[in-house]
Inverse folding.
């Protein structure tokens, strides 16, 4: 029994000595962990606040475009683009700008804006959307090779991609290539899809 008491006392003394030698390091480690946690939470809160502010700016942009207030719209787009490395709102803003440029007949400017939007996009879906719209304008400008190059980078929107490829190839007088692309688009289109009739008409026009 006495031996057990002595062992207990000895273990307690060793623990006390170890805490004296290492206690400050433990406290520092705990404080560092707390600092990191608070720092992360502060960073997360700042990120959420920034996203909320950019969302508000985008809503303002949509209203400015609807009101045809181009000066305000351009200023908002510039502000959103500056934050393009953090959110999708920069790409959305540029897509909106390119749309208004297209409606104004400024097709070359719109092509450049769609290219900028694709470059800023953080997701393949957003990038594909910008590239598809860019390719459509390039076909309208008779830049068919450039349009095909844009379509090569598209990873989503299979139906639209094949259809536009068919349009570009048809513009290049490549009837066989266009027919193949339209058939691929049709194969990927649901039976009840509203654009199915137009794809069938394009194939019929080629005598397929």
């Amino acid at each position: 029994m006495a031996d057990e008491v002595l062992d207990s006392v000895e273990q307690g003394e060793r623990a006390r000595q170890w805490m004296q030698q290492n206690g400050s390091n433990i406290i520092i480690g705990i404080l560092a962990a707390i600092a990191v946690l608070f720092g992360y939470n502060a960073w997360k809160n700042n990120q959420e606040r920034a996203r909320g502010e950019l969302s508000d700016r985008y809503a303002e942009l949509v209203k400015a475009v609807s009101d045809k207030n181009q000066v305000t719209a351009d200023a908002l787009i510039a502000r959103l683009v500056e934050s393009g490395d953090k959110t999708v709102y920069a790409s959305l803003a540029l897509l909106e700008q390119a749309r208004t440029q297209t409606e104004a007949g400024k097709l070359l400017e719109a092509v450049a804006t769609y290219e900028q939007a694709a470059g800023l996009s953080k997701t393949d879906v957003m990038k594909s959307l910008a590239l598809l719209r860019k390719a459509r304008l390039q076909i309208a400008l008779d830049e068919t090779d450039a349009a095909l190059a844009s379509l090569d980078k598209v990873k989503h929107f299979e139906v639209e991609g094949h259809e536009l490829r068919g349009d570009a190839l048809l513009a290049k007088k490549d009837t066989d290539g266009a027919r193949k692309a339209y058939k691929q688009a049709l194969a990927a289109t649901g039976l009840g899809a509203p654009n199915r009739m137009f794809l069938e008409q394009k194939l019929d026009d080629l005598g397929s």
Observations:
- The chain is about 80% helix and 0% strand.
- Residues 107 and 146 are 14 Å apart (CA to CA).
